[in-house]
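# step 3/5: fold
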Amino acid sequence: MNTKLTCNIVQDLLLNYLEKLTSDDTNNAIEQHMETCNKCKEIYKQMTTSIAAGKAPTIELKFLKKVKRTRILAAIFTIACTLLLSYFLYASEYKYTNDKSSLAVAITEFTAPFNCAVEAYVLETKEIEGVLIASFRDKSKSNINGVAVLDKGLNQRYRIISANIKPSNYSSVVQIHCISIKNEPYYIISGYNLSDEIKYYGLDYYVYLHPGNFVRDRVRETIKFDIENQQFMDVYDIKEIESFLENSVDYTFYDARLWETSLYDAEGDEITEDFIIEDNINGSEGNVAKAELFLIYVFISIILGIGFIITRYFLT
């Protein structure tokens, strides 16, 4: 049998030869080759010296590199999938932009399951401390109006968390809505379809002169505000507006309740009743809210935990 080996074959076998992994016949063939080949003999001496000095051999097994590379790629892929899945889950809640058409869709979808459902048309928006407030009316019933509150997410998009909906008995609408922003109470005054005659609107309070809140002790007090546009949304801190009321009267009262709004012309005369809807068109009233994000955060934590375990497995 011809046992003559080429230099390439001998050099490929040298590592196994040093580790005594080759057969006797292969050993004999390698040794016969090195008796006549100075190049292979020199490589053999270098490998023997490296092993004796405690250094890693210069020839590495390629499949070990491939396995290591595959594991690193698998870990990177796992991390990417984990982050993307977590983001898409988060973005499924925070998905609306600060655009009136997007907000109209948000309000319409949010109220759809309830009796006070509306096909929303957004009027005005205002952002306070990362909370977006949007006033709206129903497209088909212009006397139905409301205010929606949306929370801003890390992706700079919004999630609707509540909507307050009321009907108005007036064709020129100035409506009061009470909301909470970061646990602080606010009045939202939404105005639209206003006549050119209307120059001021008033917040009408009933204040009580004696304890007990009896009707006989009740007095009406009005705080007036200028109207600069036929469509507007004003936001007032309830504590500030009530403090203003206390400072505007020269007598002591025991309780104050915001009751309704009133409308005034340029001379300051009240003209509220000029705009009452004779047919008294009513509509559904409601205050709807969405649950907190606890379950979403739980699911995201589970996804991140599983991703961490799989990534650690690939890297170790």
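# step 4/5: annotate
Residues 63-91+298-315 form one domain.
# step 5/5: archive (pending)
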